[in-house]
Amino acid sequence: MLPAKSLTSFKPYWAKRFGVAPFLPMSRAEMEALGWDSCDVILVTGDAYIDHPSFGMALVGRLLEAQGFRVGIIAQPDWRSAEAFRALGKPNLYFGVTAGNMDSMVNRYTSDRKIRSDDAYTPNGEPNKRPDRAVTVYAQRCREAYKNVPVVAGGIEASLRRIAHYDYWSDTMRRSVLADSKADMLLFGNAERALIELTHRLAAGEGIADIRDLRGTAFMVPMGWKPSEEWTEVDSLAVPTPSPSRGEGRGEGGTRIEFIQQQRAHSVLRLPSFEQVEKNAVLDTHASRVFHLESNPGNARALVQGHGERDVWLNPPPIPLTTAEMDHVYGLPYARAPHPSYGEAKIPAWEMIRFSVNIMRGCFGGCTFCSITEHEGRIIQNRSEESILHEIEAIRDKTPGFTGVVSDLGGPTANMYRLACKDPKIESACRRLSCVFPDICENMGTDHGPLIQLYRKARALPGVKKVLIGSGVRYDLAVKSPEYIKELASHHVGGYLKIAPEHTEEGPLEHMMKPKMTAYDRFKQMFDKYSKEAGKEQYLIPYFIAAHPGTTDEDMVNLALWLKRNGFRLDQVQTFLPTPLALATTMWHTELNPLKPVLGGKARKVPVTRGERARRLQKAFLRYHDPDNWPMLREALKAMGRADLIGNGKQHLIPAFQPAGTGGARADRAGARPGLARPIKTRTATAGKSGGRRIK
Fold first, then answer.
1. What's the DSSP call for residue 88?
2. What is the distance, to the nearest Å, from the Cα of residue 372 to the centroid of all Cα atoms in its chain?
3. Which phi and psi angles does 83 have, rounded to 5°?
4. Distance (Å, rounded) from C-alpha 194 to C-alpha 421?
5. Which of 271, 375, 419, 455 is the most buried (most CB within 10 A)?
6. In the prediction, which pLDDT does 572 show?
7. Distance between CA 607 and CA 592 in Å, rounded?
């Protein structure tokens, strides 16, 4: 991996003399109380301001404050005019714009494109406090407020829209958000490195249009622009795209790997243009495939994509943070509370995480429907044990309402803490899309020992009664460590444990890049065994997706039969939601498979479920037990030649009779809030999730 300048190695800006703000100011009065006459950076966010590292603007703001900059927050402004964007005056350096912790479209709409009734990131869950495509709208209003101030976009919405992408809500291909928002620069992924260096360079007098060498940044340039003459442009359509490998140069020694990396360091790969992918499904699929193959910070090339007469230029992804840097980021002086201006209002997202601790970042699972890969990357970034334990103590000592129960020690997954490739050189050269699909890579470490030790130390802290694991467990990794499963079942499950097989059938699982159900079966056997030994009645809560690309109605029938055999009655269920840049979204849009080469007539078709009724049918199979779904299911089963599953015996999926008062129209459950279903009298429990809110 290439070296990177440490986050803490920069000379602090002169304004550091003002010290630490109790909360970053949201008003002129707060600025004056701090002795400020202006802000150096103003951050605009679609979320309420909660000063906690789980919320992006707080993390970014405190990080810049630690560098000596004066940072103000404009949270959930009225976007209908530019006036609200002038609330803190003109920033000296730039506006930083984000939609918030969630994509604004995922936040507001269900997978059936219906408007949600609440917003978890808003006081009292009040809806309609942010615009659709918030990054674009906020950036435009910032520009109206102060024409000559640079605008920098970031966060998950910007990350997922950094190139041309399919937009599910308009059912069209859309341009890069840079083209629509007119932002000067986009920071993608976890952007601490680029953010700090960019801010110091702007403060030193450089123009934002002259800063073109930061990893993890994207910007628009004239067609054909290159940083210097030594750069070489490669047309992705003119060269073969290799299949994902465990490492170019593997077995050829470090010199070969270094040579490849040097070649790539000044090579930019041209993707098919917006105009091409808008009209051609094969080229759109190819662009998606190339984009994901160029995602490893150790070997990724810069990418460029034409948009009319201009190019969107993407520098390679950022270098992951070291453990010391992660500790620095999470150890900043957060108030660990919502801004006082919200008074007694409840902010659901805060209530959900206030007693949890994020121990790592990233995910090497590579699930095709998941946005973590595109945003946080595949390389796990870990906090130290000391840093995590210190945060638990801070929760215990400073967070009102703490009763001794830590609600989660996790992250994108519960059990990837300190898991990494065994050989850094292989890791830096690898081009696999997943380290665990179709099987766990022989180079991937699976030692859960550090995590087990962390669990034991956490629950031994004075004042801590219980430490629960709320993040989903990657069960194919967990089965490699029976000791971990024993520790988990014995001490860290509050009756239910979330896991995500997503489906039971090989077709959907292959297109999801998820493990086969044999891994689930092994995990369940071990979990049940250790739960029984601990004298506890505990259940697994499996999550499933309907209408994912690669899923047929026959697959859903088989999944429904599996659910019935295993005693599951799902309450809230998820229909596939195509989010920008995800590989599964490409499948859904093009009906082609980006996991395989597509040029030269090699494209492979993917079965896709479209239309409201077809999607409702697949979701209905997940709720086979609901009488309101029986008329639709009977009709479908008869059409499929599976009338043998209709009857009143145990071997049947649904009964032949229809209870009075059922089977009529009723409110769609797709927008329901996530939660657990009621238990039923079987050896397993029920569960589910909302329609599309869970991005992972």
1. T
2. 3
3. -60, -45
4. 25
5. 271
6. 77
7. 9
Side-chain half-sphere exposure of 6, counting CA atoms within 13 A: 10
Q: Which residues pair with 115 in a beta bridge?
A: 109
Structure tokens at 372: 């973590």
Q: How far apart are CA 227 and CA 211, in angstroms?
A: 10
Element (H, E) at 306: strand 302-307
User: Mean pLDDT, to the nearest integer, of 670-689?
Assistant: 32
Q: Are 574 and 692 a contacting pair, CB within 8 Å? A: yes
Calculate mean pLDDT across residues 53-73: 98
CB atoms within 10 A of CB 675: 11
CA separation, residue 172 to residues 139, 276, 278, 550, 587 (Å)? 22, 13, 8, 21, 14
**Mean pLDDT, residues 485-500 taken together:** 95
- pLDDT confidence bin for 27, thresholds 50/70/90: very high
Instruction: Let me know how long the chain is.
Output: 696
Find tokens 């679609």 and name the residue: 46
pLDDT digits (tens, 9 = 90+) for 394-426: 999 999 999 999 999 999 999 999 999 999 999
CA–CA gap between residue 470 and residue 694 (Å, rounded) = 14
**Lowest-confidence pick of 113-117, 202-206, 496-500, 571-575:** 571-575
- For residue 45, the cross-strand partners are 75, 98
From the list 36, 123, 19, 121, the residue with the least C-alpha distance to 72 is 36
Mean residue pLDDT of the chain comes to 92
DSSP SS3 for 213: coil
Residues 6+ apart with CB under 8 A from 225: 311, 313
* Main-chain dihedrals φ then ψ at residue 221, nearest 5 degrees: -140, 165
Q: How far apart are CA 284 and CA 274, in angstroms?
A: 9
For every residue of 620-633, which 3-state class applies, written as one string?
HHHCCCCHHHHHHH
Closest-CA residue to 346 (of 54, 99, 60, 50) = 50
Q: Which two tokens stand for residue 70?
A: 């004066």
SS (H, E, C) 388-438: HHHHHHHHHHHCCCCCCEECEEECCCCCCCCCCECCHHHHHHCCCCCCCCC
Are 430 and 442 in contact by the 8 Å Cβ rule? The answer is no
Backbone angles phi, psi at 205, to 5 degrees: 105, -5
How confident is the model at residue 573, as a pLDDT?
86
pLDDT (tens digit, 9 = 90+) per residue, 640-656? Answer: 999 999 999 999 999 99
pLDDT exceeds cutoff 80 at 240: no
596 — pLDDT class (breaks 50, 70, 90)? very high
Q: Which whole-number Å values give the CA distances from 633 to 413, 640, 671, in the listed order?
A: 35, 10, 22
Domains in the chain: ranges and CATH: 1-216 (3.40.50.2300), 217-317 (no CATH), 355-537 (3.30.750.210), 549-696 (no CATH)
Calculate the alpha carbon distances from 354 to 100, 267, 387, 409 in Å. 17, 45, 17, 12
Instruction: Say whether pLDDT at 100 is over 60.
Output: yes
The end-to-end CA distance of the chain, in Å, is: 26
The answer on pLDDT for 71 being more than 70 is: yes
User: How many CB atoms are located within 10 Å of the residue 202 CB?
Assistant: 19
Q: Is 585 exposed, middle or buried (0-12, 13-18, 19+ CB in 10 A)?
A: buried
pLDDT digits (tens, 9 = 90+) for 329-370: 999 999 999 999 999 999 999 999 999 999 999 999 999 999
HEC states along 345-371? CCCHHHHHHCCEEECEECCCCCCCCCC
Give yes or no for a cis peptide into 25 (omega within 30° of 0): no
